Amino acid sequence: MSRRVALEASHAVAEATRMADVDVISAYPITPQTHIPERLAEMVADGDLDAAYIPVESEHSAMSACLGAAAVGARTFTATAGQGLELMHEVVYVASAMRYPVIMAVANRALSAPLSVWGDHSDAMAVRDTGWIQVFCQNSQEAFDLTIWAFRVGEDPQVLLPVMVHLDGFTLSHVTEPVLLPEQSEVDRFLPRYHYRFALNPDQPMTHGAFGPPEIYAETKLAQAVVFDNCKKTILQGWQEFRDVFGRHYNPVEEYRTENAETLLLTIGSFTETAKIVVDARREKGEAVGLISLRLWRPFPFEEFRRAVRGAKTLIVFERAISFGLGGPVVAEVRSALYDEETRPKVASIIGGLGGRDMSEEDFEYVIDRGREVAEKGSDRVLETVGIRGESEALKR
Amino acid sequence: MTDKLTWKDMEVGNIVKEAGNACFRRTGDWRTERPILDKDKCIKCALCWLYCPDASIKPGEDGYYEADLYYCKGCAICARICPVEAISMTEEEER
Amino acid sequence: MAITEVKFGDRLLTSKEFLAEGHNFCIGCGEPMAIRMVLKTLGENVIMAMATGCDEVTTTPLPYTSWRIPWMHTLFENTAAEISGVEAGLKILMKKGRIPERRITCIAMAGDGGTSDIGLQALSGALERGHDFVYICLDNEAYMNTGIQRSSSTPYGASTTTAPAGKMSMGQITRKKNIVAIAAAHGIPYVATASPSYHFDLMRKVRKAADTKGPAYVHILTPCPTGWRCGGDITVQIGQLAVQTGVFPLYEIEHGRYRLNADPPRLKPIEEYLKLQGRYRHLTDDHVAIIQEMVNEDYAGLKEKAACFPVEAKE
Q1: The complex's ipTM?
Q2: B32 touches chain A (CB under 8 A)
Q3: Range of the structural domain that residue A65 is part of
Q4: What topology does CATH give the domain C5-305?
Q5: Which of the residues A110, A294, C17, C234 has the least number of beta carbons within 10 Å of its own beta carbon?
């Protein structure tokens, strides 16, 4: 029998990790992720969770300890944000190449400089190429659900890849919402015990992490790309099974009121919920406006994305990071995904929500209107943004 | 051998499952001189066996310790540490 | 009948080679010498995490491995953090009954770079957290794998490629970082220095380190013919001279108390050690005199610390 409890998203992630019977937690605190390791430490201290909690001395060591634990077959979890994700950057690549299914929650935070502990997606954008399966959560229920799902998919013997569960720093991580918590028996039914067939042990001495001379490195990378391509199957299967056990269905791309939509707004993460209110308001007024939200970020959901935007005249990407010298990182991927389509919408990108800057309904109203304008006529600004003082004067040279 | 492997042959996580599979490598090709054991002098103390960096000196059935020339790199450590100078180095032959 | 053991002195050592023949270590390298002794002491119930470095690249070029023990490598500076995860993982899995209870010695092995420099943070963290493992530093006194660049373990006066002797420089102008004292400062139960030239001492210490509950640190000086520019045949002799001149004394620190393992009545002059190595050949008599001062000073300091455990004067 599910219980409905008020849970901060961070605590929802911790609770999911507890119910998943994690073996090793190795984490370093960093705002706004701290509530996750804190709650987990509390659970271990009270005997509610039988796990090894390693209070490592940095994020680089946090991920490194996860690799060691994963190598001996432990179910492992860590969490970080912003600078922490950057500090462990090199280790993040190693986790995926070595096929260790580490599960990591990232409370998305802006990157320094200047120092900002507040939310945006610049930390996530910096790890796009790392070979991790990545999803973005919209609310606390998703934070809980996708964490449980992450263990299922990452540890699947056909997958064996690490998974990142992104949740917006502060605007989601610190938000208390009602969450439906399942029975432990349901979780146990959904998530099998982890058995890692390559675990280091003296009876079967294996070598993990041999180096790659030029004669072989390229083959290993192609192999990794193929595995990553194949994991989509298990990702979808995992969501299918999730629905069967828990009743909630997730998909790679959420479509909201996209039927006959002429204008589509694309959002990622918790601001999706605010944007949906504005979409409703527009629909009230008779405008054919819809929204798509990318839940699955890596592997990029090309199929579902292309299908979702088919028929729309305009696609406005709202994103929360800048790729200096390029523009919006998400719109670059979106354009790339649409380039070969026979028919495709005009695309514009509006960047906002940086470093904790909130987005109101009015802001999303602006995004839709200005986005349509820019998609139609182009832009003379260095970047199209929302909510940045003086933005209309930041003109290209 | 490596250049026959395709991406399909890569193990999960590039793990090498076969312990010590590098032992096919003939490091004996490296040497410019080789050790010769004088069994009359040898006291079978096994110091050479312990000290050989390449683990090429092997205990024989007869109790003597001799270098496996497949692996021996000719460092001459065995010759220098033998307490009874039973090992001498001689120039490796031309192939 | 297959030979499984070798009678060595009054012991029986396994003839099994956990580090397989056919590896790519340089001719005469001190590292495989030390590694063989370590593994013959500890046997097969180990899991080793190794840093990027000489010992890693010479033993594991994909798709081959020289290791006959469970072994892992990820990066350069995180070995201690990695082994922390291995140790904690094994413990919890045994506790939860997922894997059978058994004794497995967790070993972290890294060079002087991966220990004293880039690896210092991870080492400090692992020691402070008290994981039950053995950290072994194979010290060849520079970043040898990448081409003999200086490290904080490079001794005063040695020439390396990034602190070379030149018209305006005498090579390394800083003194060797005392990583052994740093390890001991973490309050761990056992710290030791060792040399493969003193095989029984090394094996005894490795055994002791493995049997110690909690973190243990063993610092092994492994001569590098390539980087030290000496003959590959005198590796054992160089190691002996390092000890006999007082440059690398053999001692243990048990729960903070120093014990000197060998205290020759008279230290050999440092000249005997330096003259065998090309990395010191640029030194003038004045430099050598300074180095002799430093060695005398450090050795006296060590003896003072070890005063509570007087040792018989023997080699």
Answers
A1: 0.97
A2: no
A3: 3-246
A4: Rossmann fold (3.40.50)
A5: C17
